[in-house]
Amino acid sequence: MKYLFVLFCLTALAFAGTIHPDLQDLMDYSSDIELIPVFILAHGELDAGWIDAATVDMTRSEKQEFVVDALKQIAESSQDGIIEDLEIYSSDCVRNIVSLWLSNAVYCEATPSVILQISLRADVSLIEMAAHEDAGLIEPVDVHHSTHEELDKAITWSVTQINADDVWALGYNGTGVIVAVIDTGTDYNHPDLHNNMWHDTDAGYHYGWDFYDGDNDPMDTYGHGTHCSGSVCGDGAQGTETGVAPGATLMAIRINYYYGGEATWIQGMEFGTDNGASVLSMSLGSTHGNTALRTANENLLTAGVFHSVAAANSGPGAGTILSPGDSPPPWFHPDQTYHGGQSAVVTAGATNSSDVIASWSSRGPVTWWTDYTGSTPLIDPDICAPGVNVVSTKWLGGYTTMSGTSMATPHIAGVAALMLDANDNLTVAQIDSLMEVTALELGAGGKDNTYGAGRVDAYQAVLGALWVGVADTDEATRPADLILSPVSPNPVNGFASFEIYTSRAGTSDISVFDISGRRVASISSSEVSSGTHAYNWMVPSEIGNGIYFVRASVDGRTVSSRMTIIR
Questions:
Q1: Cα 462 to Cα 456: distance, rounded to the nearest angstrom
Q2: Is the distance from CB of 11 to CB of 491 less than 8 angstroms?
Q3: Taking a C-beta distance cutoff of 8 angstroms, is the pair 452, 440 a contact?
Q4: How far is 319 from 208, CA to CA, in rounded Å?
Q5: Average pLDDT over the chain, rounded to whole?
Q6: Residue 15: its pLDDT value, please?
Q7: Is the pLDDT of residue 472 over 50?
Q8: DSSP strand pairing (345-351 vs 506-514)
Q9: 224 pLDDT exceeds 60?
């Protein structure tokens, strides 16, 4: 694997970091001896265009490893000063300092006066609450013993409903794909799960990690995680096949699923990504949109890790989808106005055996993020899967039946595993797009805020994955022979210079975009020959301070380079 120097921008801004208004309100009513859990987000991030250029000759798994290493380097460089500052204080003022490389944030519990002091640092971009009262496990709306009729079936209805068994007949069952279930842990001794467990030792005793207790034993003690795990890869050894991808490898990640656990959610995402999981499944949420979680999911997209997330069980009211399910998807459906950021999250709603939406399945649109407002909302959920009366593995053996979007989520993760088994070169955006365009359309035409794109069809999605060839994948997602240099100087005061190299002649478009994806300036649009081309750009007076992207497109290939304008 070829490692290249990763370019990133760590900009020391001339103003202090921002304290989120919700956190400021809490600080105003807290005594100065009270420790408040917070995320301290640092300046510094990867540029996806340069990652694409640097990883052009890598496989999907090699690119994932490369991005993980780059994110760790950025976190170390940009967080060191913040952590050193925090470590000056006594444990009465600061405790439980954790570096989170996936979101370039530092988690800690600190007094209001410490939070205020840290916010004055130029390398801090935002400080927000890291513990919300309503954040935690998305609990099932119903749990009951599986009936004799349910257990008489060799394959549970939810698996056949989405035609996963037809995929197995094609020879694809998820073999070779690691799926991390971030939940209450997994009963790794269950006969239907034990043979599929991930481990990192020859002895096979290490099946993931427990971030709740801080040890290497992710045994379930609640049951929710075992049920979700069974919907991913339960192989039917005890009598009923419950898993969409019974050949997949299951990584168990136990997190704090009660109040104050959001940092462990990100740690779980990090562990899976760092240890080769290409699919994550998570049924956790909060009514408060969380920037650290969204940033982590944006970086998962860069790393090429698919993330299935439950919409929640809050009913049909608009805007009831919890965070991080409110993060934007990796691919924009044609019915979604193309704007705003993207992430690795594919949000799952729940349907019943008649392909009707569950009355309690949460609905969109998402309208509160600054890039997804009432005028330009985000359609959510993205897709639906069976979530009503789902039979799956039970903690301490046997089977149980549960209902909730938590049950739909691992079905989506299992379909992603089947698709990657069929075509390991798929990008996250391609997995999402193939799922959505091949889904059984339900409800209103197109993508809507009840069913999303419809109910997932594993068989049709895998046929689509087989149709997407390796060459198509590379051409669609990687700028193989177009390179854009860093902008110089950076930060930019009034004048910017950069170069592009293209191996092929073609029509070029050189433009500047803001962080919402809006074009703010066109630098050049012309026919260019192969070779190097230099550009000098005087920043127009109407463009304000902030982070922008120079995006160069030539002959259908696109790369970008980030710059910061400070006058």
A1: 11
A2: yes
A3: no
A4: 34
A5: 89
A6: 39
A7: no
A8: unpaired
A9: yes
- The predicted-structure confidence for 117-134, as pLDDT tens digits, reads as follows 999 998 899 999 999 888
One-letter amino acid of 190: H
Q: How far is CA 15 from CA 114, 122, 252, 442, 515, in A?
A: 18, 6, 42, 49, 19
CA nearest 254: which of 306, 304, 206?
A: 206
Query: What's the full length of the chain, in residues?
Result: 567
CA dist., res. 67 & res. 65, Å (int): 6
329 contacts: CB under 8 Å, gap ≥ 6: 342, 343, 345, 346, 347, 382, 432
Domain extent listing, the chain: 8-129, 136-475, 479-565
Q: Which residue from 497, 493, 500, 499 is spatially nearest to 543, judged by alpha carbons?
A: 493
Answer with the residue of higher pLDDT: 274 or 489. Answer: 274
Pair 233, 179: CB distance under 8 Å = yes
Please report, as a single letter, which amino acid is at residue 404: G
Report which of 180, 182, 349, 321 is spatially closest to residue 257, judged by C-alpha positions.
182
* Helix, strand, coil % over all residues of the chain, rounded to 5: 25, 30, 45
Percentage of residues in the chain having pLDDT higher than 90: 66
Q: Which of 449, 460, 506, 452 is nearest to 479 (CA)?
A: 506
Contact 41, 127 (CB under 8 A): yes
Burial of 355 (0-12, 13-18, 19+ CB in 10 A): middle
Query: What six digits make up the tokens of 548?
Result: 């922008």
- Interacting residues of 203 by C-beta distance below 8 A, sequence separation 6+: none
Please write the tens of the pLDDT for every residue from 230-239.
Answer: 999 999 999 9
Residue type, 191: P
Q: How many other β-carbons are positioned within 10 Å of the β-carbon of residue 32?
A: 11
Helix H segments across 8-126?
A: 21-28, 48-54, 60-87, 112-119
| Peptide bond preceding 329 in cis form (omega within 30 of 0) | no
> What pLDDT is attached to residue 531?
58
Query: Considering the chain, what percentage of its residues have pLDDT values greater than 70?
Result: 92
Looking at residue 305, its pLDDT comes to 98
Quick check: do 136-475 and 479-565 share a fold?
no
With beta carbons less than 8 A apart as the criterion, state whether 156 and 242 touch. Answer: yes
Tell me which architecture the domain covering 479-565 has in CATH.
Sandwich (2.60)
Strands (E), 411-544: 482-484, 495-502, 506-514, 519-528, 531-538
Q: Give which of 473, 60, 475, 7 is closest to 304, Cα–Cα.
A: 60
* Alpha-carbon gap, residue 105 to 205, rounded angstroms: 32
For 471, residues 6+ apart whose C-beta sits below 8 A from its C-beta are none
Can you name the residues that pair with 243 across neighbouring β-strands? none
* pLDDT tens-digit map of 397-437: 999 999 999 999 999 999 999 999 999 999 999 999 999 99
Q: Is 136-475 in CATH node 3.90.550.10?
A: no
Three-state DSSP state, 316: coil
